[in-house]
């Protein structure tokens, strides 16, 4: 087994509070809560190996092989040997992510091995169903799994993750890139505006209005809404709901969490019914059921 899989993750991650969640031959799962003394750029982190980084909360910046991106609770990154990464935390402490390290030998035994070992890194996002599966895996591993069940869950998650990865022209931003292909400065400016809006929303308390977001990024609400849709492939409202639901999943995973009516008010929903409707639309289950699923550590969400 390569040294990078199964050795101390503190030697290979951003300084922070870390917790190993599971270890099995060829795989290591751990969680990191970043502790930031200097919010500027740190790195480079080289020889990352085959890793999956999944955002949990907070917002930061990442430069992977020279490509800048915003990292938040919707983000996922797949790396492979030879990649080089820098990271910055402009808002300070609090960024949390899950990392899964995988050996080439383990990936080589999978039927989709060519897609893992022969691809470029994936820097994008995961949908809500897959994010829920990620968080369920973390919750169940933290509660305690034997090696057999841990290995099976990870392999199942990896298969679904790869199947959901973006494909070329279908990636977010493809529409705007085609529209302004001959105006690279415009494309860059629009991406910066969308990234800035993502930073503002990820750092807000979930009750910030569209006019407030537009004022903070320095443009009109109409222009921001139109550019954000073109760059990301989703509306500002949809993105805001994705962030709110992912924060809620952390609350629901805590068995001693507050009543749902209180949660709805905290996260800016009109009432508990509104909260329930949005969560069900996003992940397929109402919040009360999700709370029970997290407590039971359900293995198969599709069958739950």
TrEMBL record:
Record protein name field: Transcriptional regulator, AraC family
Classification via SUPFAM superfamilies: Homeodomain-like (SSF46689)
Species of provenance: Micromonospora sediminicola
Domain HTH araC/xylS-type: start-end pairs: 191-293
InterPro entries associated with the record: AraC_XylS_family_regulators (IPR050204), Homeodomain-like_sf (IPR009057), HTH_AraC (IPR018060), HTH_AraC-typ_CS (IPR018062)
Signal peptide: none
GO terms, molecular function: DNA-binding transcription factor activity; sequence-specific DNA binding
Keyword Transcription regulation: yes
Record key words, sorted: DNA-binding, Transcription, Transcription regulation
């Amino acid at each position: 087994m390569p040294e990078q899989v199964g050795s101390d993750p503190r030697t290979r991650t951003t300084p922070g509070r870390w917790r190993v969640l599971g270890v099995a031959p060829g795989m290591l799962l751990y969680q990191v809560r970043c502790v930031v003394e200097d919010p500027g750029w740190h790195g480079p982190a080289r020889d990352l190996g085959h890793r999956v980084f999944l955002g949990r909360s907070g917002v930061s910046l990442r430069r992977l092989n020279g490509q800048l991106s915003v990292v938040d609770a919707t983000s996922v990154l797949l790396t492979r040997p030879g990649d080089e990464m820098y990271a910055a935390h402009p808002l300070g402490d609090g960024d949390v992510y899950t990392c899964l390290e995988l050996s080439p030998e383990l990936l080589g035994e999978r039927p989709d091995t060519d897609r893992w070992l022969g691809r470029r890194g994936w820097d994008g996002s995961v949908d809500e169903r897959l994010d829920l599966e990620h968080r369920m895996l973390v919750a169940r591993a933290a509660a305690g799994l034997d090696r057999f069940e841990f290995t099976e869950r990870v392999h199942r998650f990896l298969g679904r993750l790869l199947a959901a990865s973006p494909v070329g022209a279908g990636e977010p931003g493809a529409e705007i890139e085609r529209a302004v292909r001959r105006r690279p400065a415009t494309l860059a400016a629009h991406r910066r505006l969308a990234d800035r809006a993502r930073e503002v929303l990820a750092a807000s308390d979930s009750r910030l209005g569209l006019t407030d977001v537009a004022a903070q990024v320095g443009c009109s609400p109409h222009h921001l809404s139109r550019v954000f849709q073109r760059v990301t492939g989703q509306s500002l409202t949809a993105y805001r709901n994705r962030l709110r639901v992912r924060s809620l999943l952390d609350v629901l995973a805590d068995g001693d969490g507050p009543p749902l009516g209180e949660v709805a008010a905290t996260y800016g929903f009109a009432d508990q019914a509104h909260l329930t409707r949005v969560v069900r639309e996003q992940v397929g289950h109402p919040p009360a059921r999700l709370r029970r699923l997290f407590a039971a550590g359900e293995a198969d969400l599709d069958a739950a």
